[in-house]
Amino acid sequence: xxxxxxxxxxxPDLRLREGxxxxxxxxxxxxxxxxxxxxYLSVNASGAVxxxxxxxxxxxxxxxxxxxxxxxxxxxxxxxxxxxxxxxxRERDLLEG
Length: 97
Fold this sequence. Notes:
InterPro entries: PQQD (IPR008792), PqqD_sf (IPR041881). The protein is an alpha+beta fold.
């Protein structure tokens, strides 16, 4: 399934920035084209779970819950992984806000 990375709506939810990326889910991974930098990024299985939620719009807590549930992580590890993922996405200016 191919996605253009666009989202709509406003609010405190975390979302991918409209027009920032084009992405495709392949098996348990996500391949992303950063449209502004013309760079390809690869997201592993845990990142793919987060990416799909970010594409739809989500919250930090929902991201943590998804990782904890899917990969049987303790909450502290899930929070640290989500925070690192979000920091990387923000550094690349891929999130709204």
